[in-house]
């Protein structure tokens, strides 16, 4: 593991800035506005369930495409900011012909994954489509009891 500041995996040649969201910490490139998520913890889900409006201003910029200046380099290989391994590409699509959500992940050592500028919003769309239950706070104990009670009373 590299000590010190992580560098942007996309040749921006700038260190990533740590952004705190509640009790989660992510690393964002100030130049291309991509975001690095370490694989430990569930930072992505925490950020998505916090919702766009509750994010720090800096991170809001990564939600929708536009602000970041990312120069796409054909055939460029991007490297894990933690271990330096080549990142692998993963593609997701919500529906046929829909927007593509691309994740660059460290497959070799499982260090984490990278989302380009705008992909936080795409991640939100995708997760709320395939697994909306991940985005809601776990229900309080009382409400489970209440649900059981209403289930039982409905059967009478
Ligand atoms: Zn960058
Ligand atoms: Zn790695």
Structure description:
The mean pLDDT is 83. The longest helix is centred in the last third of the chain and has 15 residues, at 141-155. This protein has four helices and six strands; from the N terminus they run βββααβββαα. It has a six-stranded antiparallel sheet with strand order 1-2-3-6-5-4. The protein has 156 residues and is α+β, with helices and mostly antiparallel strands. A hairpin with a 6-residue loop joins β2 and β3. It starts with 16 loop residues before the first strand and ends with a helix. One zinc ion is lined by residues 8, 10, 12, 29, 31-32, 34.
Brief digest:
By secondary structure, the protein is an alpha+beta fold. 25% of the residues lie in helices and 19% in strands.
Helicity range of the residues? Answer: 25-40%
* General form: elongated
What structural class do the secondary elements suggest? alpha+beta
List unreliable stretches of 5+ residues: none
What is the residue-mean pLDDT, rounded to a whole number? 83
**How much β-strand is present in the residues?**
15-25%
Sheet with the most strands: spatial strand order? 1-2-3-6-5-4
Count all strands and give the number: 6
The first-to-last residue Cα distance is 60 Å
Radius of gyration: 18 Å
Query: In sequence order, what are the helices and strands, one letter per element?
Result: EEEHHEEEHH
Tell me about the biggest sheet? Answer: 6 strands, antiparallel
Heteromolecules bound: zinc ion
- Give me the number of helical elements: 4
